[in-house]
Specification:
single chain, 235 residues, mainly alpha, two-stranded parallel sheet, 68% helix, 3% strand
Amino acid sequence: MKKRLFYTELAYLFGILAIALGTAFMERADFGMSMVVAPAYVLYLKLSATWEFVTFGMMEYTLQAIVLLLMAALLRRFRLSYLFSFFTAVLYGFALDGCMALVGLFSPATIPWRIGFFVAGALLCSLGVALMFHTYLAPEAYELFVKEVSARFCIDIHKFKTLYDCVSCLLGVVLSFVFFGLWKFEGVKWGTILCALCNGALIGLLGKRMEARWEFADALPFRRYFEVPQQAAGR
């Protein structure tokens, strides 16, 4: 079967939108957020109770700035493309706030509807991450951390993604305990644990399905500004 052409720049835009929309669906389902965004969501719940101007999207790109700094310290280098990753985080933050407002118009009152929202959200988030792995444009800090560190230390990207997700999930649990007490889980619930265990494998599966159907190619000649040299990547 002949593969269809899919531009990597479109993968970047669709990836951001899919992750933002998926996150909004999961927030509305209230079964727990994706483990990657759980820490930012718990911080958003805590801080927005005091400062109304704080949004989920704002906490996302603030936390991602910290992740970028940690990644640069771990890799012992800083590239201009990392700044574009922060731009991606800000773009995603605005998209997330917009999707939250849109999805907030719906009220999934029954359990079946909430499950449907959760499943749709989880699939959209995994699809978005898989798309971001197929673009040269700097992804969000979460995905860039996985992409850069796994390349630097020659670790399978999907296995490292699962490990990263579990660590994020644990951080979300700790923050929930600190801010809301031992017996009140906010943002981190059974859905978060399920995502932590399955997300890496689901991203890998969706990525393979896309690669079987589409040929990813660049529409613009900007890849050289974002690629990591092989020596620096530890290859």
